[in-house]
C-alpha cells in the first residue's frame, strides 16, 4: 500500500512564526497560492484531514474531487498557553523558557500537551487508519495533515528510522511511502519527498 502524507498550506500565523496547534486559522492568500502551485490530482477519491480548516482547505485544492474524511486524533499538538505566540514574543516568558531549556520542547505546555503524549495520540490514530484501509483492500491512502503529525508518524514508523525533526516538511510538501508489516507491526519504507501532487 502506498501512503501519501502532505502538510497543509500556510496560514497568517505561520508567516510570523507563531505556534499554531489547535488554533483554527484558514489558509492565507500565500497559502492558497502555494497549494495551487503544488498541482492537483482529481483522481483521488478520499483524503483524510483533521478538524482544522487549514487541512480541509488544502485538501480541497490538492484533491478537488476527493471526499474528505475527518480524523480528529490526527490534529496538531496543543501548545496551550503558547498558542498564537512566536518564540520571539515569549523570549521572557518563564514558562516558555523552561519548556525550551529544561525539557527541550518535550515537556507539557501549560494547559496543553507534551510532545510524547501528542505523538502517542497521532501514531495510534494513524495506525488505525492504515489498518482500516488495508482491511478494505485499498492500494493508496492520502492524508493532508499537520507538520508535527507527519514528523511524529515517520519518527515512529519509518524504516530505516529517521528522527522527528529529520522529517520536517515545508507547507504543501509531502512524502510518498510504502506501508509494510514487519515483526513489530506497521513500517513505512521507501520515503520519497514530493513537491507536487499531480497524478
Q: Keyphrases for this structure?
A:
199 residues, alpha/beta, Rossmann fold, four-stranded mixed beta sheet, two-stranded parallel sheet, 6 helices, 6 strands, globular
Helices and strands in order:
Layout: E1 2-7, H1 12-15, H2 29-37, E2 46-49, H3 53-62, E3 67-70, H4 94-101, H5 115-135, E4 140-145, H6 147-157, E5 174-182, E6 185-194
Parallel strand pairs: 1-4, 2-3
Antiparallel strand pairs: 1-5, 5-6
Helix pairs in contact: 2-3, 5-6
Helix percent reads 25-40%
Under CATH, the topology can be stated as Rossmann fold
Return residue spans where pLDDT drops below 50 for at least 5 consecutive residues.
none
Q: Which structural class do the helices and strands define?
A: alpha/beta
Under the CATH scheme, the architecture is 3-Layer(aba) Sandwich
* Gross geometry: globular
Number of strands: 6
Going across the major beta sheet, what is the strand order? 4-1-5-6
Percent of residues in beta strands? 15-25%
CATH homologous superfamily placement: Phosphoglycerate mutase-like
The chain-level mean pLDDT equals: 96
C-alpha Rg (nearest Å): 17 Å
Put simply, the count of helices is 6
Order of helices and strands: EHHEHEHHEHEE
Structure summarized in a few sentences:
The chain has 199 residues and is an alpha/beta fold.
Describe this structure in words.
- The protein has 199 residues and is an alpha/beta fold.
- It has one domain (2-76, 116-194): Rossmann fold.
- It is 32% helix and 20% strand.
- Strand 2, helix 3 (53-62) and strand 3 (67-70) form a beta-alpha-beta unit.
- Helix 2 (29-37) packs parallel to helix 3 and helix 5 crosses helix 6.
- The model has no long low-confidence stretch (mean pLDDT 96).
Amino acid at each position: 500500500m502506498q501512503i501519501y502524507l502532505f502538510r497543509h498550506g500556510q496560514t497568517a500565523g505561520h508567516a510570523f512564526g507563531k505556534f499554531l496547534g489547535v488554533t483554527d486559522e484558514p489558509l492565507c492568500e500565500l497559502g492558497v497560492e502555494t497549494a495551487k502551485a503544488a498541482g492537483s490530482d482529481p483522481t483521488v477519491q478520499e483524503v483524510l484531514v483533521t478538524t482544522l480548516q487549514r487541512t480541509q482547505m488544502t485538501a480541497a485544492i490538492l484533491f478537488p474531487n476527493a471526499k474528505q474524511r475527518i480524523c480528529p486524533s490526527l490534529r496538531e499538538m496543543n501548545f496551550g498557553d503558547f498558542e498564537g505566540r512566536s518564540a520571539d514574543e515569549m523570549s521572557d516568558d518563564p514558562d516558555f523558557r523552561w519548556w525550551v531549556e529544561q525539557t527541550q520542547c518535550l515537556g507539557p505546555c501549560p494547559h496543553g500537551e507534551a510532545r510524547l503524549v501528542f505523538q502517542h495520540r497521532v501514531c495510534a490514530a494513524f495506525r488505525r487508519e492504515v489498518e482500516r484501509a488495508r482491511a478494505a483492500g485499498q492500494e493508496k491512502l492520502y492524508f493532508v495533515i499537520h507538520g508535527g503529525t507527519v514528523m511524529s508518524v515517520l519518527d515512529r514508523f519509518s524504516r530505516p528510522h529517521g528522527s522527528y525533526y529529520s522529517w520536517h516538511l515545508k507547507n504543501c510538501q509531502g512524502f510518498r511511502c510504502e506501508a509494510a508489516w514487519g515483526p513489530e507491526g506497521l513500517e513505512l519504507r521507501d520515503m520519497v519527498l514530493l513537491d507536487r501532487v499531480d497524478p
